[in-house]
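I have been asked to look over a protein record a colleague put together. Alongside the sequence sits a line of tokens, each denoting a local backbone shape. Please read both lines and tell me whether the tokens look consistent with the sequence. Take the sequence as given and treat only the tokens as open to question. I have pasted the whole thing underneath without changing anything:
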Amino acid sequence: MPQRATSRKATILLADDHQDFTALITDMLRDEFEIVGNVGDGKALVNACLQLKPDLIITDISMPELTGIDAAERLSKLGFSPKIIFLTVHADTDFVRACLDAGAAGYVVKSHVAADLLPAIQHALAGRVFVSSRASK
């Protein structure tokens, strides 16, 4: 009997300095995706991304060492442009614009994580951009 081809799960690197929150995100995503790492600051995000080469990064904006935006810009300068979803408390237009300018594939406001994170991931993996409706337009 021929074996069924198994599709590879997309790999995700998480970056947030609040470990309770990343544990929640890991629980939400672990069945559909492979969580390859979890870091708590922007410098660790850059290093882990270069080492692990995930399909997608989910990062907070406000973190120690480097912000998520600074980390995204540094990765781009290093020639590595992964799909990045910013998962943040900030709903202000200036933050949305800064993240999109840094190459974001998604922008999810943490208060809407349950409704918006999976669609944001699906959009990003399909090459489209997703912005939470909660974020100021």
User: Anything to note?
Assistant: The beta strands are 11-15, 34-39, 56-59, 83-88, 106-109, 130-131. The first strand starts at residue 11 and ends at 15.
